[in-house]
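Let's do one together. I've listed all components of the complex below, 812 residues spread over two lines.
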Amino acid sequence: MSLVVQKYGGSSVATAEKIKSVAARIKRTADAGSGVVVVVSAMGDTTDELIELAHAINPHPEAREMDVLLSTGETQASALMVMALHALGAEAISLSGGQAGMRTDRVHRSARILDIDPARLKAELERGRIIVVAGFQGLTEDLDVATIGRGGSDTTAVAFAAALGARCEIYTDVEGVYTADPRVVPDARKLKDISYEEMLELASKGAKVMAPRAVELGSVYNIGILVAHSTKDAPGTLIHGGVDMEGFNRVRGIAHDMDVAKITLRHVPDRPGIAAEIFEPLADANLSVDTIVQNVSENNTTDLTFTIAKNDVKRALPVVNEIAKTIGAKEVVADEKMGKVSIVGTGIQSAPGYAARMFRTLSEAGINIEIISTSEIRITCIVPENSVLDAVRALHAAFELEKVEL
Amino acid sequence: MSLVVQKYGGSSVATAEKIKSVAARIKRTADAGSGVVVVVSAMGDTTDELIELAHAINPHPEAREMDVLLSTGETQASALMVMALHALGAEAISLSGGQAGMRTDRVHRSARILDIDPARLKAELERGRIIVVAGFQGLTEDLDVATIGRGGSDTTAVAFAAALGARCEIYTDVEGVYTADPRVVPDARKLKDISYEEMLELASKGAKVMAPRAVELGSVYNIGILVAHSTKDAPGTLIHGGVDMEGFNRVRGIAHDMDVAKITLRHVPDRPGIAAEIFEPLADANLSVDTIVQNVSENNTTDLTFTIAKNDVKRALPVVNEIAKTIGAKEVVADEKMGKVSIVGTGIQSAPGYAARMFRTLSEAGINIEIISTSEIRITCIVPENSVLDAVRALHAAFELEKVEL
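Okay, and this is what the predicted structure of the assembly comes out as:
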C-alpha cells in the first residue's frame, strides 16, 4: 500500500468549517487507496493565545510547563479532525506525538527528535484507519511532553514520512513555492520543483512557505516533500534532492526580507581574535546575527558591519557600545531602515555573470547596494528598505522568471 | 510529613487572576509544612466550549476522541497553576492523570478508576515539589486518555487522597454544606460536619456542592473530605464517617430540587413482573428514573407513578405510551410542574415523629403532598413546583435549623 503523510497547518484548521473541508480532502486520499497519516497544527491563533495566558500568570514560564500547555493545542486539533473524518464515515483515530512513537530529548520548547517508533502507527494503518497525529510534540525519556519548537509540525510530518518510508505533503495557505512573492511581483510563477538547498535559501530569506528545519530533515532522509494549498486543487511544488540538468545553473527565485537592521563598528583594530571578541558577547545576549561583512584593512583598522532583526536593535546597541569601548573601535552606527534581496539557484554563485547581472540590474533601477554577501546557491544584497520591492521586481524581470514553465 | 490533596474547581481557576490567588493559598499550605498534591479542573467554561466546538464538527463524536479533546482543558489548567506557583518561588510540577498513575477502564467519557500507582507522586513529593495533577482523566491499558465523567475532578482528588493516605480538601465557590440553600433560606447555617450518607442525600437531592461519586469513594476508603471556599478563609464542612452521638437522630438539612416531572400510569394490571415491563424499556431508552411509587392494588389494577427530569418528559412520553399499550394500562398522565423537598439526617426515617412533623408542617403551610418516598436517612415529598421554596423555608423553621451551632 502506498503511504502518505499529510500536514495541515494552523490556518488550514482554524475553524470547524475548515476542519470539515480538510477532512474531506483527507478522505479522498484514503478512498483512492493510500494509507494516510495526518499531522495537524493547533487551530488558528490557539498557540499565541495560550502563550499570552501563560505570560499573564508568569512572565518567565518554565519551558517544561509551557510544553504541557502548548501541546494541548495540537491535541485538540487532532481529536477534532478525527471527529470530522468520522462524520464522513471514515475510520480514523487521533494519536498524541508520544503515542505515535516520537521520542525527543529533554530540551523543552526546542527539543530534538531522537527516534520514532512506528509500531502503533503501523498497527493502526493495518486496521485501515486514517491516523491523525498531534504535531509539534513528542515524549522525553521521563515520559514528559516536549515540543520541538515553532514550525515543528512541518518537521513532525517529514520525520514520520522518513520513519514510515512514506511520501510527504505539506498543505498550507499558499499554492507552492514561487519565483518571488506574488504580492510583490504579480507575474511571479509557481515552481514545479525545487532542490532542498534552494528551498532553504528561499525559506530562510523570507519566503515563509515551510520551516527550514523540516527541509533539512527532508534533505538528510531524501524525502520528497510536496508543498500545496490546503483547499485548492492546484498542483504544488515538489521539494526534492535531484536537480535536473536544466534546473542546474539557473536563477530559481528572488527572496526578500524587510526585517533587516544594520550595525557598523567603525575603525576596529585589525588583529587576530577581534571577530570573536565582537560576536561572543552578542551570542551571550542571545542576539541572532545574520549577514556579517568585514572590509579589507586600512591603517590596521577595519570597518565591520552585521545585520540583525529590527526588533533586536534596541537590545543590541548597549551590548555593541560596550564591545566598541572594550576593543577600542571608534564609532557605532545603526540603521534600522534596511532590507535584503537575494537571487537563489544552485550553481549561480560559481557561474559567471549572475552576480554582475544582479548588480547591474539594481544599479539601473537606481538602487544603492550597501552590503553584498554570497553563499553556494545565493547572492544577497542589503539595500535600503524602501528599495526592496523595486529590487525584487527588477530582478524578477532581469532573470526572466515570468517565463518559467508551470 | 502530613499530606493533603486539594482540589480546585473550574470557577476557582477561571481567569489568570484567580489562578494566581489560588496559587498563593496552595503555597501557604506548603510553607506550613504539608506535602501538597493539587487537582485542578478546566478553566471556567473551557469544557463546555470544547463540547460545542466538537458538536459543530460532528453531532455524535466518538467517546474516545471526546476524551482526547476534553482532557486538554484540565491539562492546560495544571500547567498554568504550576506557572503561578513558580512565579511565587515555589517548587512545583504539573502531571497528567496518567503521569500521576491513574489507570482507568476503557469506558471513555465515564471511565471507572481501576488503580492508582503513586510512584511518581511520591518521588516528586520527596523532591519537595508541589504537584498539580490534571483532574478528570487517566490512562487506559492501551495508553489512551480516558475521562472519568463530569464531577470527575472531585473523584480524582478523593482517589489520590486514598492512594496517598492524605487528607482531602475540596475548594469550591460555596463555603461548605448548609442546612438548606442560603438563597432560599436566608438564615440557613453552615454545618461543621456531616456524614457521607447525609452528604449524598443532600448532594443528590439538589445541593450541588460536591459530586456524589466522590463522596461515595470517600466513604469506601474512609477519607475525610473538607469542603470549603476557594478564596475566603472561612472554615468549611468536614464530610466524614463517624457520626457523633449528638449528630445522630437529628435533621441535618433540607434539600430541594425543582427539576422534577411526574408521570403516572393509571390502572396498571397488578401482576408479577409488571414493574420490569415498565422500567426496562425506560432504561433502554437511557431515561433516568428517580422516585417510583406504586399504590396498593385495587380490583387487580394499580396506579404507578415515577419522577424524571423535566427535560426528559418529551423523550419519555412516547416510550411510556407504548408501554401502556403493551401492558394494558388505562391512561398516562404527565405533570411537569413538580418539585421535591427532603429532610435529611441519619436515623430520622426510623425514629418516630420526623415524618409526622414534616407532613404536619407542609399541611399547615397549605402545601399539597403528591408523593412520599423515604430512604434510611431521608424523607422526601414531591410537591407542586411553586410550593417548593415555601416548603423548604417552613421545614427549616420547623426543625429549628437556624439554631445549628456554627
